[in-house]
């Protein structure tokens, strides 16, 4: 499902946080959102998820404007894992993942075998099947992160918005998440810091001071000029060659096991 972001601007307490941001992510594409701390990545994802309203501009999901969709309808189409995702502490891991099915349930359509299978598959994809009965609050940061991703997987949306999904994860689980993003038939937009992760996506968008300063294919966007200006770092002369031959081999590990 396509997600179209048009001319989004947002100020908080008079301070511009996002200015005229436009993005077009085709159905099934993956987009990496990069930029320094405070550049507006999380705010943009929250606007795209319908959690906060922009002052100007609009977001279109499939054929519908975000603001025309009911919360239930939106949750059936779009799953969001925020940067500081929380879950009630006193909850078992499998119950936390089951919450992902909520938008599909009603009095006439209670939780059934098919929902159980979806939950089991999501837990297996995130390698948390063994933790089903554990209390969420006893897990490590990385395990919690995988539970959050399993919860949105169980939601079976056509669009995933992930705010720093590889945060807290060890290298093996980082690779598993990025591999999963690459394999996805769904549309994925994620904020990331690791340029190798950005390079693995179909498109890269760069935010700087709330403005979109570059948007395109990784090889067009992840060039020394952009990186040096936006991140205020000196780029190694072998930068492009190194990114093209990442240390981590994505798409090799089939699952997060
Ligand atoms: P990033 O995710 O790129 O680090 P954020 O979107 O979290 O950036 O924040 C962008 C800017 O907006 C920051 O300067 C931050 O302080 C500010 N900001 C975000 N949310 C709020 C808020 N609720 N109130 C005040 N300022 C905010
Ligand atoms: Mg952020």
From TrEMBL:
SUPFAM superfamilies: P-loop containing nucleoside triphosphate hydrolases (SSF52540). Gene3D superfamilies: P-loop containing nucleotide triphosphate hydrolases (3.40.50.300). Residues 3-234 form the ABC transporter domain. PROSITE patterns: ABC_TRANSPORTER_2 (PS50893). GO terms for molecular function: ATP binding. InterPro entries: AAA+_ATPase (IPR003593), ABC_transporter-like_ATP-bd (IPR003439), P-loop_NTPase (IPR027417). It comes from the Bacteria. Keywords: ATP-binding, Nucleotide-binding. It holds the Pfam family ABC_tran. This is ABC transporter ATP-binding protein. SMART domains: AAA (SM00382).
């Amino acid at each position: 499902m396509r997600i179209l972001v048009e001319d989004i601007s947002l100020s908080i307490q008079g301070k511009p946080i996002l200015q005229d941001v436009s993005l077009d992510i085709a159905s099934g594409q993956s987009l990496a959102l990069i930029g320094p701390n405070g550049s507006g990545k999380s705010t943009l994802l929250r606007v795209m998820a319908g959690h906060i309203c922009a002052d100007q501009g609009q977001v279109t999901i499939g054929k519908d404007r975000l603001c025309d969709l009911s919360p239930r309808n939106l949750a059936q189409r779009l799953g969001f894992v925020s940067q500081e995702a929380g879950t009630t502490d006193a909850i078992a891991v499998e119950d936390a993942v089951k919450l992902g099915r909520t938008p599909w349930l009603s009095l006439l359509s209670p939780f059934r075998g098919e929902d159980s299978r979806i939950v089991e598959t999501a837990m297996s994809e995130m390698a948390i099947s063994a933790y089903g009965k554990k209390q969420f609050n006893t897990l490590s940061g990385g395990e919690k992160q995988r539970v959050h991703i399993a919860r949105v997987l169980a939601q079976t949306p056509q669009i995933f918005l992930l705010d720093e999904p590889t945060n807290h994860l060890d290298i093996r689980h980082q690779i598993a998440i990025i591999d999963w993003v690459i394999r996805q038939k769904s549309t994925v937009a994620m904020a990331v810091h690791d340029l190798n992760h950005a390079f693995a996506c179909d498109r890269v968008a760069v935010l700087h001071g709330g403005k979109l300063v570059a948007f395109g294919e990784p090889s067009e966007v992840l060039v020394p000029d952009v990186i040096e200006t936006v991140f205020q770092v000196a780029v190694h002369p072998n930068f492009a060659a190194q990114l093209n031959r990442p240390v981590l081999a994505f798409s090799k590990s089939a699952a997060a096991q």
